[in-house]
TrEMBL record:
<dbReference type="InterPro" id="IPR001117">
    <property type="entry name" value="Cu-oxidase_2nd"/>
</dbReference>
<feature type="domain" description="Plastocyanin-like">
    <location>
        <begin position="436"/>
        <end position="586"/>
    </location>
</feature>
<dbReference type="InterPro" id="IPR011706">
    <property type="entry name" value="Cu-oxidase_C"/>
</dbReference>
<protein>
    <recommendedName>
        <fullName>Multicopper oxidase</fullName>
    </recommendedName>
</protein>
<comment type="similarity">
    <text>Belongs to the multicopper oxidase family.</text>
</comment>
<feature type="domain" description="Plastocyanin-like">
    <location>
        <begin position="277"/>
        <end position="365"/>
    </location>
</feature>
<dbReference type="Pfam" id="PF07731">
    <property type="entry name" value="Cu-oxidase_2"/>
</dbReference>
<dbReference type="InterPro" id="IPR008972">
    <property type="entry name" value="Cupredoxin"/>
</dbReference>
<dbReference type="Pfam" id="PF00394">
    <property type="entry name" value="Cu-oxidase"/>
</dbReference>
<dbReference type="InterPro" id="IPR045087">
    <property type="entry name" value="Cu-oxidase_fam"/>
</dbReference>
Length: 588
């Protein structure tokens, strides 16, 4: 049953999509029975399914775009709203950013800044709930405001600015006026001196980020730079942002969030990784987008809590021509049949629909298993294999825009030489503590928690080599604030023999560890280019080159040692909330 569905999704396209999804859902009993529990557990899986939703009946929304290039302050608020996320679904309660309660949307408005022009963004908290509507776990380290309420603090992911504008997790504030210990200001100053790219802003409050982001507190932020852009990139209506996420719904339209913990005697409500059974793009479940037979530029974000996406296109002649990553343009485009995005990864991608027949459709599908990468994707609930539809329509009234071009080179290859006898070298082991049943209690980096003393203290201007070593069976997206970094190499090792103390990992240089099952490999397509979030694959060492300067190797136009400091963490929001997150201080 499941595998035939998978074949259907991946190989046969969607000609009979509506009938088949409904039919398939009915066969599987893929619908909630009439009664519903208010709470459900994260173990045991598959106990709650969204109601049956017909795919591709809602048009892809492109959220309001706000240009913040003129130096005046933009004021956004965080509000509680309801929004229809699918035509077959009752409006969903959400938290959302916007310039007013009436205009707040999920995802929030797309903010557009110009390189080297400072943006000033103030964020007010207008959420007067007494607590998050998805259940907070009060036993993990969380904000815990003395007068209740929903604390927020906003981080601009991938941005480079002083840490008092960074949205430090302990710098939260509530509508009632309580403030976390590292609160600096609701006003954020973003100098935008980094290269042109796609960033995103989202809530980062300690211990509840998985909840506030799943509830809707995120939006895109584009830094434009006309002098960096190759000429004739698809633009205007041919440049489309795509925020891809997953959610499960109760029959009444509200978000279904498992809140009976995986190890309830330790953490009654915390679950290790939220996975929904429907896919949303720009806040609609399985939307369609009308496209002309032309080139399109898609600015993609994986905004999921814990789901990786490996995107494919139903017409095998089409490719994802990836021109940019987290940190902006790649040196040369990648020509990909599948595009893998970890949570928080961005991709700048051209798809050329020029030769696709008007009146036909192309489907963007997902083949990533969850957990990623080594479980069986055939176990996915069928809905997560489908992302969105592109309907090819004729451009009326004027000739098609054929002058859009795919560039052959966008920027120069960065220099990343290093010397392990001189540069600081750090090893990080990712592991978890488990209860008697083997269920995770905390996911940790070098056994340390968020509140343990800072150990990562790079000096301004220095290069540090970090080895990210993953002993866990699944991949973790590792995010470092303030800088972009490059992957030097990836190298698989045998975690079983290492854990049994039968061999060693590289403690002498270079790479002399005896646990490695291969030599250092060039970073593959999921790991190339400037990153702020990198996939740490299981049983693999990912060696990254970090330089504590601006992207060009010069000084930051701000004091990186001022303020509450930065951090680095797993971008599985459910992991960062439960201690896979560490402080980071930049020394002068
Ligand atoms: C969803 O709505 C569409 C359009 O209104 C309708 O055709 C379809 O039957 C509905 N699907 C379900 C499962 O109710
Ligand atoms: C939230 O609080 C503000 C200010 O006290 C009030 O104006 C508003 O009506 C409240 N909103 C709700 C939904 O209760
Ligand atoms: C923050 O912005 C507000 C609104 O513009 C302004 O009144 C206030 O002085 C600013 N605060 C700081 C610390 O800059
Ligand atoms: C922005 O500033 C950087 C560093 O000073 C400079 O290299 C770059 O050319 C500038 N870019 C634009 C678009 O002004
Ligand atoms: C991508 O690769 C395919 C297969 O090799 C090739 O046919 C196509 O021309 C390439 N596209 C671009 C834009 O390089
Ligand atoms: C796939 O696209 C090619 C053009 O690139 C077109 O000729 C072909 O008919 C398409 N296939 C399907 C199944 O639509
Ligand atoms: C479209 O078809 C023309 C004519 O067959 C061919 O020359 C061109 O390479 C095709 N373009 C793409 C993007 O497939
Ligand atoms: C791309 O390559 C051309 C030809 O070598 C060169 O003139 C141009 O400067 C390069 N563009 C970039 C952005 O590196
Ligand atoms: C590359 O880096 C090395 C060492 O950091 C430095 O000596 C060299 O000048 C750099 N080259 C360029 C082209 O920046
Ligand atoms: C973490 O703690 C466990 C149990 O105390 C220990 O076996 C392991 O070596 C520690 N790992 C690191 C990287 O310190
Ligand atoms: C790890 O090493 C052990 C002992 O040599 C071997 O049996 C096992 O197959 C290896 N595992 C992997 C994944 O290579
Ligand atoms: C990249 O490398 C990882 C780790 O070896 C592997 O699991 C993954 O499949 C590779 N992805 C691609 C696209 O090559
Ligand atoms: Cu993680």
């Amino acid at each position: 049953m499941v595998s035939s569905c998978r074949i259907w999704f991946c190989d046969l396209g969607f000609d009979l999509a509506h009938t088949k999804i409904v039919l398939f859902a009915a066969i599987l009993g893929w619908q909630l029975s009439s009664g519903r529990a208010d709470h459900y557990q994260c173990t045991g899986g598959g106990t709650v399914y969204s109601p049956i939703l017909t795919p591709f009946i809602d048009e892809l929304p492109t959220s309001q775009s706000i240009k913040i290039q003129n130096g005046s302050q933009l004021v956004l608020g965080a509000y509680k709203i309801t929004q229809v996320l699918h035509s077959n679904l009752t409006a969903t309660t959400l938290y959302a950013y916007g310039t007013s309660e009436a205009t707040a949307t999920y995802p929030g408005p797309t903010l557009e800044a110009l390189r080297n022009t400072t943006s000033y963004v103030r964020i007010e908290n207008y959420i007067n709930d007494t607590e998050t509507f998805l259940m907070t776990d009060r036993t993990i380290g969380w904000a815990d405001p003395p007068n209740g309420g929903v604390p927020i603090v906003t981080h601009l992911h991938g941005g480079q600015f002083q840490s008092d504008s960074d949205g430090h997790p302990d710098g939260w504030y509530t509508a009632a006026g309580d403030y976390g210990p590292t609160f600096s200001s609701k006003n954020h100053t973003y100098p935008n001196t980094q290269p042109a790219t796609l960033l995103f802003y989202h809530d980062h409050t300690v211990g509840i980020t998985r909840i506030t982001v799943l509830s809707g507190l995120l939006g895109l932020y584009i830094i434009r730079s006309p002098t960096e852009e190759p000429s004739n990139l698809p633009s205007g209506d041919n440049e489309i942002p795509l925020v891809i996420q997953d959610k499960t719904f109760w029959e009444n339209g509200s978000i279904a969030f498992p809140d009976i913990g995986v190890s309830p005697s330790n953490h009654p409500n915390w679950c290790p990784g939220y996975l929904g059974d429907t896919i949303l793009v720009n806040g609609k479940v399985w939307p369609y987008l009308k496209v002309y037979p032309e080139k399109y530029r898609f600015r993609m974000l994986n905004g999921a809590n814990a789901r990786f996406f490996t995107l494919t296109l139903s017409n095998a002649t089409l490719r994802f021509i990836q021109i940019g990553t987290d940190g902006g343009f790649l040196p040369n485009p990648l020509n990909l049949t599948e595009l893998t995005l970890a949570p928080a990864n961005r991709a700048d991608v051209i798809i050329d629909f020029t030769n696709i027949t008007v009146g036909t459709s192309v489907y963007m599908n997902n083949s990533a298993p969850a957990p990623f990468p080594d479980t069986n994707a055939a176990l996915n609930p069928p809905g997560v294999n489908s992302v969105m539809e592109f309907r090819i329509v004729a451009r009326k009234g004027r000739r098609s825009r054929n002058n859009y071009a795919i560039p052959s080179n966008m920027t120069t290859t960065p220099n990343f030489t290093y010397d392990l006898t001189k540069d600081v070298y750090r090893q990080f082991m990712f592991d978890q503590t488990v209860d008697a049943d083997g269920n995770p209690i905390h996911i940790l980096m070098n056994n340390a928690t968020w509140t343990d003393p800072v150990t990562e203290t790079p000096t301004l201007g220095s290069v540090e080599i970090w080895d990210l070593i993953n002993f866990l069976p699944d991949a973790h997206p590792i995010h470092i604030h303030l800088i972009n970094f490059l992957v030097v190499h990836q190298q698989a090792f045998n975690a079983t023999t290492y854990t049994a103390n039968e061999c060693s990992l590289a403690v002498e240089y270079p790479d002399s560890g005896t646990c490695f099952s291969e030599g250092p490999q060039e970073p593959n397509s999921t790991l190339v280019g400037w990153k702020d979030t990198v996939i740490s694959y299981p049983s693999t060492v990912i060696r990254i080159w970090t330089r504590w300067t601006n992207r060009e190797g010069g000084s930051f136009p701000f004091n990186a040692s001022e303020g509450p400091g930065y951090l680095w963490h797993c971008h599985f929001l459910d992991h960062e909330d439960n201690d896979m997150m560490r402080p980071l201080i930049v020394l002068q």
